[in-house]
User: Fold this.
Amino acid sequence: MIKIILLPFLILYFLASFSSLAKQCSVNLNYGVIIDPNHVRIIDQGKTIIQINGTHQLFIEGREILLDNKQQDLISDFSNGIRTQIPAIVSIAIEGVDIGLKAINKVIGGLTGENSVSQQKMQTKFDEIKWRIRNRFNHSANNYYLAPQDFDDFDSIITGEFKSEIEEIIADSIGTILLAVGEVIITDKDNENPHNTERRISTSDQRMETMGKDLELEISASAKILEKKAKQFCLQMSKLNKIETSMQAKIAHLKNFNLIKLN
Assistant:
């Protein structure tokens, strides 16, 4: 029973740990980035300063810059990297929250029954906060927007802007779990010979302990996968920064352009 009741706190610990990992990545964007199927746009104070059409057609402040083949290859590598990594970090942010909320929902479903009123209520809250996190990136189909320095503030996605809402959900889940546990024990007492009550309570407690251990292992496994994804993201952003450095050196118009900053 203890692991079941402590599970929501384990979720908070997981989210905090993931935020620490994001801080270790220390990747900043100096400008906003907008991605759609046909363009990559770099935004400064609401104005498009750089636009890449297709894979290698470069525009700076609305004027096309003619490029040789090697320069086109650099722009293509940079564009493809941005198109890969921006959606990746959006996915990681949503998955980080989803792991924790799914575990809580699974406990509530196990105690109150699948599709119970309690589980449906929690599921509605979970869906809403995941939608809001996704909406923070203005994500729709294959369109993404990321504000300047969004990676530097990545932990605020989990522990800042949505912190109070996640804590409220967890507080509600604790109450629901405690009520469900209490109902299980009361039902066992009512339906069992008094001489067997202690044995039934022990059986219920063991069942919930098993559920808690299974979920703890599940969360741990998911967290390791997510950590691997986050580290891979940091590695790829580091490689993308090197491409950007080559662009600065080989394309005169981009000499002072610096989208990616690694601390």
